[in-house]
Amino acid sequence: MFCEKAIDLIRELHRMSDGQLPAFNEDGLRQVLQEMEALYEQNQADVNEAKTIGRADLIPSIKLRHCCLLRNQRCIFAYLYDRLLRIRALRWEYGSVLPANVRFHMSAEEVQWFGQYKKSLASFMRSIGGKEGLDITQDMKPPKSLYIQVRCLKDYGEFEIDDGTVILLKKNSQHFLPRWKCEQLIRQGILEHVMS
Amino acid sequence: MFITDLRKNFYDVVANQRVALLVAADIDALCACKILQALFHCDQIQYTLVPVTGWQDLSTAFLEHKEQFRYFVLINCGANVDLLEMLQPDDDSIFFICDTHRPVDVVNVYNDTQIKLLIKQDDDLGVPAYDDIFRDDEDGGDSGNESDEGSEPSGKRRRFDEGAIERRIERQRAKREWEARRREILFDYEQYEYHGTSAAMIFFELAWVLTKDTKDMLWWAIIGLTDQWVHDKITHMKYVSDIATMQRHVSRHNHRNEDEENSLSIDCMRISFEYDLRLTLYHHWSLYESICNSYYTACSFKLWTLKGQKKLQEFLADMGLPLRQVKQKFNSMDITIKENLRDVIEESSNKYGMKDIRIQTFGVHFGFKNRFLASDMVHAAAALLESTEKEQNDTTDNFIKALDSLSRNNLDCLKAGIDLAKKKLIAIQQTVASCICTNLILSQGPFLYCYLMEGTPDVKLFSKPLALTLLCKYLLKAFVHSTRNKRCKLLPLIMAAPKDVEKGTVIVVGIPPDSETSDKKNFFGRAFEKAAESTSSRTLHDHFDTSIIELKTEDRSKFLDALITLLS
């Protein structure tokens, strides 16, 4: 049946609905494009035939193939666009350096797009908030306090905070630190925010 | 040196600094730590909290953190030993010590620069006067005199010789006398170990002076005080007077409750003074189980004998409580029975010789279901702190769990703690019963001795200091009730239990004799040290309480013999 492969691509993205980025399905995309090419050729041939010979009974099949082409195009656009949205969310979650396994799943063009998105976000952040700019990727929810209490889940070693002081992060020690320094480590799972 | 104004000399000093908190592993320290953490959160003082379980832990923690921190706050550790000698800190490290262990080491008292003691001076400290112990100018004078004499020309020296020799002999005699007296004074001062005002209460007072005290902090201070009473660290008189102090704070916080129109919502925390029964955990258990497993009632009835069991049944019948009700969970008991329960029990227990079945304490309730007495929380937190549930449990893991259970929003942690505490109490009761019935307690002359064999059920629970101390206390009380020997009733008890089977060590605990007017002063610390030295047994005096040590199993008998000779 036509358009099945395009639906497969969509289903693949739908399966990972929590925002994870699956590997770029180049094969699938190529197959869909091939199918579109085949349909287009057939349509071209039929249109020429219909025009020259005047066979009006070819018109429904031309219309059918045209619909399939449009459907395929729409599916591919949705696939690519959804991936871009996910990649954009990654910038907000992970920061400007993506972990290697995620980068492996992106195609070359997507990597390029990511680089340009990063640049435009950075220039925007520089332009607001006075001289040094404002990092709006921190504090996604309004913070309740400047400092938070964190507990160390694994031995990490020494950790330097803004004013140069070094803290030794040992398992099960608790610390009261500035929020912005801890967020990175909380995401990595080394510190745990303790609410009391 | 002692700090009297905590706000000016402690809090304001650390206000803009980063502080390292080194906290010992007992409930009073945990409560004091929570209060201090809450204060630090208010004022955004950055800190790092490190749990320590013994002197070695303390030294390691200090070494790791000394580069990064200048101010160290030690809670319930460090006062009874010469801290500067043990840790060898740099000159700019400052230690704030809030410790209940007494006697405070004299070096810590008289050091003006690096050691600040957050201890109330009206606690009967009895610190010897400075001049009785320290005498550093005399030696310099001595050697100066001698060198003077040496440089005099030889002719004159012969003439002054006799006078000079006499003076020197006189000086040396005075010095020896002074040193002998100094040794005596220090021996008297350091002989007995006891405990002072709860650290949690001291920090609560600091919070009150800063007007930053909240009901949570008040509750933690109450738990800290109750911990000292449950684990028998302070005398009954001191407990009652401290309760009176806390009662003043509680009534101050409770004045809003009396206003009928703007009364607090049911979810707010309410602390109330209770003159409640001395039955451990009875609100979270059935009344019957609680009576069987609380040491006061179990020892008074002698529940390890058949006669005792019969007496208990009589007691319940006397009060008119049906067995079916009494064995049910307390919360599901008939409401008519629960209403006058305390008075009914008090009346009946007077007939059976239990005059102090009721004790002054505090209770908290928030929400419709959550009602806890201070002693419930102490037992739950202590059970969590020393839980042996998982094999690989780090002591710091347990510390964190126990710390969490003290917060109001970690109720499942607290409930888990209560379950563990129930198991612990049942285990203690069974061990006490078996020890008494099999006559495991031997009188060794100057003290009683009991050794838990390796195959005893639940012996792993008793490899921890707090649990073993509780067992000791109950065992001694039970023994006093069950023995006919008048002399044995006044003896202290030493107990040994296997600590680590692979390394072959036992943990040894000594407690003072059980009496009504006991001042809870424990001389076993020094005794253990001397006995270990004289027999060169392999001991580890790692715990902050000097009366708890670790010993190699093979050295047990010679250590005991040395102790017997020492103390008789």
From TrEMBL, chain A:
<dbReference type="InterPro" id="IPR005339">
    <property type="entry name" value="GINS_Psf1"/>
</dbReference>
<feature type="domain" description="GINS subunit">
    <location>
        <begin position="56"/>
        <end position="128"/>
    </location>
</feature>
<keyword id="KW-0539">Nucleus</keyword>
<comment type="function">
    <text>Required for correct functioning of the GINS complex, a complex that plays an essential role in the initiation of DNA replication, and progression of DNA replication forks. GINS complex is a core component of CDC45-MCM-GINS (CMG) helicase, the molecular machine that unwinds template DNA during replication, and around which the replisome is built.</text>
</comment>
<dbReference type="InterPro" id="IPR021151">
    <property type="entry name" value="GINS_A"/>
</dbReference>
<feature type="domain" description="DNA replication complex GINS protein PSF1 C-terminal">
    <location>
        <begin position="144"/>
        <end position="195"/>
    </location>
</feature>
<keyword id="KW-0235">DNA replication</keyword>
<dbReference type="GO" id="GO:1902983">
    <property type="term" value="P:DNA strand elongation involved in mitotic DNA replication"/>
</dbReference>
<keyword id="KW-0158">Chromosome</keyword>
<dbReference type="GO" id="GO:0000811">
    <property type="term" value="C:GINS complex"/>
</dbReference>
<comment type="similarity">
    <text>Belongs to the GINS1/PSF1 family.</text>
</comment>
<dbReference type="Pfam" id="PF24997">
    <property type="entry name" value="PSF1_C"/>
</dbReference>
<dbReference type="InterPro" id="IPR036224">
    <property type="entry name" value="GINS_bundle-like_dom_sf"/>
</dbReference>
<comment type="subunit">
    <text>Component of the GINS complex.</text>
</comment>
<dbReference type="InterPro" id="IPR056783">
    <property type="entry name" value="PSF1_C"/>
</dbReference>
<dbReference type="Pfam" id="PF05916">
    <property type="entry name" value="Sld5"/>
</dbReference>
<protein>
    <recommendedName>
        <fullName>DNA replication complex GINS protein PSF1</fullName>
    </recommendedName>
</protein>
<comment type="function">
    <text>Required for correct functioning of the GINS complex, a complex that plays an essential role in the initiation of DNA replication, and progression of DNA replication forks. GINS complex seems to bind preferentially to single-stranded DNA.</text>
</comment>
TrEMBL record, chain B:
<keyword id="KW-0235">DNA replication</keyword>
<dbReference type="InterPro" id="IPR003874">
    <property type="entry name" value="CDC45"/>
</dbReference>
<comment type="similarity">
    <text>Belongs to the CDC45 family.</text>
</comment>
<dbReference type="GO" id="GO:0031261">
    <property type="term" value="C:DNA replication preinitiation complex"/>
</dbReference>
<dbReference type="GO" id="GO:0003688">
    <property type="term" value="F:DNA replication origin binding"/>
</dbReference>
<feature type="region of interest" description="Disordered">
    <location>
        <begin position="135"/>
        <end position="161"/>
    </location>
</feature>
<keyword id="KW-0396">Initiation factor</keyword>
<dbReference type="Pfam" id="PF02724">
    <property type="entry name" value="CDC45"/>
</dbReference>
<dbReference type="GO" id="GO:1902977">
    <property type="term" value="P:mitotic DNA replication preinitiation complex assembly"/>
</dbReference>
<keyword id="KW-0131">Cell cycle</keyword>
<dbReference type="GO" id="GO:0003682">
    <property type="term" value="F:chromatin binding"/>
</dbReference>
<dbReference type="GO" id="GO:0000727">
    <property type="term" value="P:double-strand break repair via break-induced replication"/>
</dbReference>
<protein>
    <submittedName>
        <fullName>DNA replication initiation factor cdc45</fullName>
    </submittedName>
</protein>
<dbReference type="GO" id="GO:0003697">
    <property type="term" value="F:single-stranded DNA binding"/>
</dbReference>
<dbReference type="GO" id="GO:0006270">
    <property type="term" value="P:DNA replication initiation"/>
</dbReference>
<dbReference type="GO" id="GO:0003743">
    <property type="term" value="F:translation initiation factor activity"/>
</dbReference>
<keyword id="KW-0539">Nucleus</keyword>
<feature type="compositionally biased region" description="Acidic residues">
    <location>
        <begin position="135"/>
        <end position="151"/>
    </location>
</feature>
<keyword id="KW-0648">Protein biosynthesis</keyword>
